[in-house]
Amino acid sequence: MRLIAHRGFAAVNPENTRRAVREAAAVADAIEVDVRRCATGELVVIHDETVDRVTDGSGPVADHTLAELRALDVLGTGEGVPTLSAVLAAIPDAVGVVAELKADGTETAVDRLSRPGAAVSSFSPALLSACRNRDPSVPRALLVDDDPAAVETADDLGCARLQPSLDRCDGRLVERAHAAGLEVDVWTVERPAAVEPLARWGVDGVIADRPDVRPA
């Protein structure tokens, strides 16, 4: 079962920073980061629509220039909001990357994800379709919470993975996904006990906030 560091293990590291991905790379099989576009067009790594929660600034990410985002302090690290390119450069080639696309226009992230073990993910079928049209060689993952047609949607999009929420995942969903040729990564896992049933069901990966959740 692969261990995917959610935002670089957000429970123990300052999420979506270069520091976080460097720390997570020592443990994780892959690292998940969130991608948005800023006012000057660059792809940047930050989860929320605004900078308020994780920086000393305020306002929408999309209204900030790259220079303004770099000047902010993310979670007291002294680091600004990083570009996707900077985060990818901080992750060793042997460690996979999952870039979660959060907003329209971020499908251009596939241009930077030709490395082995890289994939894009999104809740948006339209964004995943745009990624397929731009570069079908980059694997895609459909993120879902409560969607009875999730397997069919992921299959129609040509996805390689289905990524259901922990609360909505069960053995039947995993079985259906595997029958459709989809691997299954479950989010967001915070306790080792939550992994035990996932392992029984044959889940392929866990997207975790902590590094200590994977069973021996």
Overview of the structural elements:
The structure is a single chain. The protein is an alpha/beta fold and 216 residues long. It has one domain: TIM Barrel. It has helices at residues 18-24, 66-70, 84-90, 125-134, 150-156, 171-179, 195-201; strands spanning 2-6, 30-37, 43-45, 96-101, 118-122, 140-144, 161-164, 183-189, 205-208. An eight-stranded parallel β-barrel has the order 1-2-4-5-6-7-8-9. α6 (171-179) crosses α7. The protein is globular, with a radius of gyration of 17 Å. The chain starts with a strand and ends in an 8-residue tail after the last strand.
At a glance:
The chain is built from seven helices and nine strands, in the order βαββααββαβαβαβαβ.
Uncertain segments are none
Q: Domain count, please report it.
A: 1
What general form does the structure show? globular
Can you count the beta strands? 9
Could you tell me the radius of gyration in angstroms?
17 Å
Give the CATH class: Alpha Beta
Q: Characteristics of this structure?
A:
single chain, 216 residues, alpha/beta, TIM Barrel, 7 helices, 9 strands
Write the layout of secondary structure elements.
Blueprint: E1 2-6, H1 18-24, E2 30-37, E3 43-45, H2 66-70, H3 84-90, E4 96-101, E5 118-122, H4 125-134, E6 140-144, H5 150-156, E7 161-164, H6 171-179, E8 183-189, H7 195-201, E9 205-208
Parallel strand pairs: 1-2, 1-9, 2-4, 4-5, 5-6, 6-7, 7-8, 8-9
Antiparallel strand pairs: 2-3
